[in-house]
Design brief:
Chain lengths: ~160, ~280
Amino acid sequence: MIVQTENWLIIPVTFLIAFILMLLPMPDWTAWLRPAWVLMVLIYWTMTAPHQVNLGIAWIVGVMMDLLNGTLLGEHALALTIVTYLVVRMHARLRMFPLLQQGLSVFLLVLLYQFILFCIQGFIGELPSSWLYWLSAMTSMVLWPWVFNMIRDGRRRFRAASL
Amino acid sequence: MFAKEAQPGFRLFFLVVLAILLMILDKQVSTFNQVRAALSMPLLPLQYIVSWPIQLIDKTRTIISSHDALVRENLDLKAEQLLLRAQVQRFLAIESENNQLKALMRSSTQVQGKVLVAQLLAVDTDPYVNQVVLDKGSRQGIFIGQPVLDANGVMGQVIQVGPLTSRVLLVNDSHSGIPVQVARNGIRAIAIGDSYSKKLRLMSVPQTVDIKSGDMLVTSGLSQHYPEGYPVGQVISVVKDPGLQFATILVEPSAHLDRSREVLLVWPSKTVLKSN
């Protein structure tokens, strides 16, 4: 076993950055292109540190997303919890994948996440009528290698600072 | 090994049930809104952090804009103010006359209330939620259901109030409905939002009704939420498909829902319906 000398402050910091990216005002035409930042950060942490970040955190983060977005309280919580459960179950395998294959898995996971949200939206009567809704899974996949490397580098720097 | 595997499954079940419970509570129980407002409080700094750089950019732009540009803008504004003043004079005369006539008919709904200017926090939401966050809250006396206007028309109404911020449901959100009437002939209808096209639709309007493209819609004041006579939007298309029961009428909102940075909050103080 490796002795954990990691500074776990990096986890809330990355989530904070993801929240800011989620809220940051962007030009109108990018509305559907915004990647699922929070979910990507969540996938990263559940994959690499499943004992620190798992279902409970996913649920709380989801409720925070609902509060910030003004969506029905609990809908993001539900979607994030289910997706995180899958990641927890597969974390050992996901960690072994090359980045490209990881990106593909992220694509499927974001798609599932959007599908759950889509269903809930359907229940409360405001279904996205545009196919562009699903584009976010694409952008998340494309940006995954970059996010992965960013968090990993940040983690190393944090660890170095805390030593 | 097996017991360890069973643990996350149970937790998943528990959390999913909790989330569904939360959704039902949020959707069905109206007082849950206060819980929501209280929970949003700790997340307030985040919204300010996001909105801060945008405001900073705005400020620096004002600071570095040249003297000439400012002088020109000042002149333009003065000219515009003169024009508006002239119009207001005429408007005041008409308003007093209108009030007199209404007093004669003894069914007045006069709106002459307090007004407060608020700023939008620059915060994006999901593409299918049309809400904005204002930098004024219950400390300034804002209440749920309060109408919000901009310089060009009705923007929406307040749906959630915190001590320092409040959340506004825009008229083009699919949860929003606003009673309107056609300025030309007084036909009444209800305009509901369409989140995806960012426009409004008129609900349950018969095929035979006299509404044309280009008609101006104003608030009818029947809901007690919105004051009477404020512009809501302009009809951009009327489709009368004989196969459908109702006409499909699309309305372009006249408020600049995605551009306005400053909004007006209105206290409709004297909206007491007097009837015989």
